[in-house]
Structure formats: C-alpha cells, structure tokens
From TrEMBL:
Residues 2-167 form the Formyl transferase N-terminal domain. It comes from the Bacteria. It comes from Algoriphagus pacificus. SUPFAM superfamilies: FMT C-terminal domain-like, Formyltransferase. Coiled coil: none annotated. This is Methionyl-tRNA formyltransferase. Residues 196-284 form the Formyl transferase C-terminal domain. Gene3D superfamilies: 3.40.50.12230. PANTHER family: METHIONYL-TRNA FORMYLTRANSFERASE (PTHR11138), METHIONYL-TRNA FORMYLTRANSFERASE, MITOCHONDRIAL (PTHR11138:SF5).
C-alpha cells in the first residue's frame, strides 16, 4: 500500500505519523497558497524525508506525472481545501479516501465540526469515504461516533478526533479495495465556513446552552463568540453554567452579578445564567474576574 496524502491541516499529522511508521507514505500534496498549517506540514515532511508537491488545484498534468513517480496506488484527503477532480482521483488504482469530521451528508461542507458543535450535537461522526465528483460525497468506507464532552471547545475536540481517526486510518485505506458500502449522496446545501454573523451571540433569542455551544464551537479556530459591550466588540472564549441567587428585574444579556472574586454572570433568554470565564477585548485575553476587578458592574449589558 503506497499512499499520497492531500492535506493542509495539522489534524492529519497523527494519521501521517501512523502511516510513516509502516513506510506507506509515497508523498504529500499541499495547496500552493498560504494556509495556517502549511509551513509546519512542510517542515515535518522534510524531517520525515517525504516528498512534498505544491499544487494549485488546476495544473493536473504535472501532478499526474509526479503520481507516476511516487508509484502510489491510493490517495488520502484530510483537511484539504481544493476539490480533487475526477482526472486525479481516477489516476489511483483504488481511488482517494477522504476523512471528514462530521456526519454525511448532513454536515457536508468546509466547517462540519463548527456547525455540529454550534447545534449542540452530543456526538461527532468521523466519516471515511471514497470521493467522487461531488463535495463530501461518494462511497462510504467506515464511520464511527465520538462523544462530545460537556464544555469541550472545538480545539480540544479536534485534537481528540485527529488521534482517534489515526487509529482506523489503515483499516479504512485497505477497505478502499473492496469497493463496497453505501453511496453518500451530495448535499445541495453544504455549510460554508462561519462568518461574523454566525459567530454573533443573540442574547434575546439564544438560551444559555446555545450560547455555550457557540462559544465552544468558536474557540480557538474562529476567535471566540462575538458580543458588544460599552460600544466595543468582545470575543467570549469560555463560559460555564451557573446558579445565581439575585433579586431584580433583568433582561437577557444583562450582567446580574460581578465581583473580583467570583467573576461576571450574565442572564440568557431562558432565564438561566452563564459565568464568563475568559474573554478577549481590544486584543487582550482577560478573565471574567479580572474584568470585574476593572470596574464592570451589575445592570451593565452585552448587546
């Protein structure tokens, strides 16, 4: 088994290391553009003595010749932003396997983990499938569910999924040869990457659970959930449910209690409370207790 890996994402590294141990990696394809993990993947590949091909997603003839040189019989796509065309995936004897952190076709698209977490899913599915002409579709090879821990942010969950997916990667790559399994249909409403609007907290409509789901889904990859306070944007990075014994008339988004010992507590639309643990304001990471010590008071409001 000789494998070419298409990747630009650090989540693929445990699988790469697993396959390198058995001398199965014939080369790595990375996008010919600046992406956050690109330099790290190139450096690791050099250290492992693996050939790296920088591809623009368009010039197919040159990369097809490179594939012949690698003598690879299958491909692995793991966190790769370019759509791999039919000419490319059919050049491999056994096709190309894609690893997707999300149930398909429900969570097809560029940011499945964000949307699953924002929606409060209790489990995330790791899906392995043979790609076809459509995005996140093709023949199912293997899938299994992983529980989401209460309060777990997307960064920690993704790290767990990366390790767990590596445990089954060789099995999934071998099963490419069988050409069995259901065909995953294309989803005509693939979710896009979240924009600023998707990251906004709506204190009047979102429950305490929904705010917490959004905060966890946005930390750290999307910089936290967004709200406004005293006319400035604030990013909330961590919250926790809280019981608060207060009296008074408050509307959702209002700070009901604040001090330098216990921190800041906010009322949500379902009249449950969240403690704001970690925030980012004006480029500074700050705790709720520190913010309270700097003068934040009850009855002030997030918008």
């Amino acid at each position: 088994m000789r494998i070419v890996i298409f990747t630009q994402c650090s989540w693929s590294l445990p699988s790469i290391q697993k396959l390198v141990q058995n001398d199965q990696v014939a080369g790595i394809v990375i996008p010919n553009k600046e992406v956050p993990d690109r330099k790290m993947i190139v450096e690791i590949s050099k250290n492992l003595n693996i050939d790296v091909y920088s591809w623009d997603g368009k010039e197919n003839q040159a990369i097809l010749k490179w594939f012949e040189h690698t003598q690879a019989d299958r491909g692995l796509s793991f966190g790769f932003s370019y759509k791999i065309p039919k000419e490319i995936f059919e050049s491999f004897q056994f096709g190309v396997l894609n690893v997707h952190f999300g149930k398909l076709p429900k969570y097809a698209g560029a940011a499945p983990l964000f949307w699953a977490m924002k929606n409060g899913e209790r489990f995330v599915t790791i899906t392995y499938h043979e790609i076809d002409e459509n995005w996140d579709a093709g023949r199912m090879v293997l899938e299994f569910d992983v529980p989401v821990f209460p309060g777990e942010p997307i960064g920690l969950l993704a790290s767990r999924l990366a390790t767990l997916s590596a445990n089954e990667i060789e099995k999934a790559l071998l099963q490419l040869e069988l050409k069995t399994g259901e065909i995953i249909p294309a989803n005509s409403k693939n979710e896009s990457r979240p924009d600023q609007t998707d990251l906004l907290i709506d204190w009047k409509k979102q429950t305490a659970d929904q705010v917490e789901f959004l905060v966890n889904a946005a930390n750290p990859h999307y910089g936290g959930a967004i709200t406004n306070f005293r006319g400035s944007e604030i990013r909330i990075l961590e919250v926790s449910p809280a019981d608060v014994n207060v009296t008074g008339i408050f509307s959702p988004g209002t700070i009901v209690y604040a001090d330098a010992t216990y921190g800041i507590f906010v009322l949500c639309s379902d009249y449950k409370y969240l403690r704001l643990n970690i925030l980012q304001i004006e480029g500074t990471i700050i705790t709720g207790t520190k913010l309270a010590a700097l003068g934040v008071k009850p009855f002030e409001k997030f918008n």
